[in-house]
């Protein structure tokens, strides 16, 4: 097991940066998500880790071994990494067992040893009974599990997953997430998981790298990302809530009820954007005056869109509907001040 | 450049394949140009000036343009009729209609000419059998410019059909339905929607039909030479028989002339094909604009089958009848019926067996070689940048797009001298025909592989790469099994085209090295039409069998690989 170090990694297509000076230090056995909107460079980063793309600048090291950079480009077949592709990339002309066994064939393992390991890998993903089927006879979830088994079989140090749940329906996703967790627990491999779905990233990863336009926006645990987002962009991308300008505070401060009441009502000096999560907003008899913009029924509760005097929108939950256009008052128990959007 | 192209594919393989392509597709045309433009310093005595001064050149050029132009019109009418009927209406039996309509394109031109000759004229066994033959001594109406144009039009109508059909099939039905709901009559829909939308397709179709007619050798040779009506390809053939001192330079100039005319046509075609595709980009779904009631549908089907009966069935019946009588001019009845031509073909004629052998050897050799080349080439090209791929494709297209005579003359020039270093002369051997076939049919073999390799999900190979498979292993274990059907279809198409080929071999054959195409031509020229008819029947059967085989493979192939399945 070895840690994976990305040092100032850049990728340019022509003079367009796809990935711009990315720095990450990933601990051995960590489950990391690369999260960002489409076109943010996360898939390019993953393909550079695998070795399908060369890097334009910086370096990638795995446990002290230089994989790419400084004139070196180790080809994918020598990196000892596994990958689960979005399309699963199962070879249609091979059976399930042949697909899973192919990496072992490349390692020139003896037949008996190979059979044993194919059996183990298929058992781990509960597909032993389908070993002789062709990939096209399997369902989406089963194909995904074959792809996982093919990764498992060589016991790679690093497993790369490229939006592996994108092609599955919602019901299957939950059970596949469980399969990934189980896979991670069993192998202890470092896993790098690319996704644009924040819920997926939050529930799977121990640390998340949020990317935007080729740059690393924030690199922290899911809890920290939700509670203490660094910038306005990350706050808008992760979770729900509203951002309001608050006077007399600076970025990176946790604000209580008093500070918010004061900062929201005053309008002298520079304002700083402050993230206010819906669970911290309570409709009450008195407090900060708001206009109700919208009231949407969500089953368990009503979701309110409220407009502050400054025009900023907040979100709140309430047990009963309010009339649009009606005036109301709220108490806000917590806010987190952000860096302004670039 | 190699580095930019190859990714992690082995350099030596990339270099080997690229130089082979350059050698096959570029050197012949370059050699031809050098010869045609040689001795310009002689001024008015240079080959170029001499040929351009010759009245025969201009007459043949005029004949070429006249017959090709007329043939294009005929091809447009026939092709458009079938394309519209089969793509826009609900006629039934489409698959068979398409198959039969495509057949004339696959049957070699000299066989087409031979069968039509058996259909008309005083010695037609069919007309004699029916008792309606014209009086002896009356002329064969097909020995004329119009006869040539008619047959070329029929032979190239499938090209128009294919081009037009692809733009009609992509036309969204909503466009036509929108016009109808806004009050346009059927006639207005044709004028205001369908025609404007497929106009580019129509121009492209006309251009490709024109270029093919310009390069057609078999039909003007069989129908024109007896009437001393020469077009450019047959003029070259006649010059070649002359063996004058300056003969080679003269035919080089003539070839370049056809080449330039054809090139203009090809450029027009490419331009309009691109435009037709662009217009319809983003729309899918098949338009069946006109759902006919059963009476009209029956009428339309009747019309289509009648046309097919006239242009395909009747000449083939005439051909079959001719092969079953002892001599031309004899009517077929129970007394005259004989299989002697077939017996003679199989037993006595040494040249027949030899020609079959030569053609099968050439065709299967070319098919195998090109399959082996297409696999790594198609794979390489699927990884190239669009621009590199486009230019390489145009390079490979050159020997296929240029008329066969041009390539044949170029090969003669290239191999007239013994090869340097090894001192082996290819001229007068089967090898020269083989090399010409490789150059000419490379594009046929490559296209299906390219289509199939282009559809492969890149991650299939990447997964193998991560598993530790190097490039050659990936090519054999991952790519080959997945593109195998397309590779095989490409090989079959090459075989089908090469086994009947006449134009190239007519100029390159030598005693003992004749091909099937040349054999039919020579037998007919020598007056042995019955034997020629028997051989032609066998050829047609072979063509139909191969086409059916390809049709059966159709469901494993990407769309567009087999021309008559869309």
Keywords, please?
heterodimer, A: alpha+beta, Rossmann fold, OB fold (Dihydrolipoamide Acetyltransferase, E2P), six-stranded mixed sheet, 20 strands, 27% helix, elongated, B: 566 residues, mainly alpha, MetI-like fold, 2 domains, globular, disordered N terminus
If you had to describe this structure to a student in words, what would you say it looks like?
The complex is a heterodimer of chains A (342) and B (566). Chain A has two domains: 229 residues, 3-Layer(aba) Sandwich (Rossmann fold); 100 residues, OB fold (Dihydrolipoamide Acetyltransferase, E2P) (Beta Barrel). Helices cover 27% and strands 34% of the residues of chain A. Chain A is built from nine helices and 20 strands. In chain A, the strands form four sheets. A six-stranded mixed beta sheet of chain A has the order 7-8-9-3-10-11, with helices on both faces. In chain A, a hairpin with a 5-residue loop joins β17 and β18. In chain A, α4 packs parallel to α5. Chain A is elongated and about 75 Å long. With 566 residues, chain B is an all-alpha fold. Chain B contains 25 helices and no strands. In chain B, α19 packs across α20. The chains are: A alpha+beta (342), B mainly alpha (566).
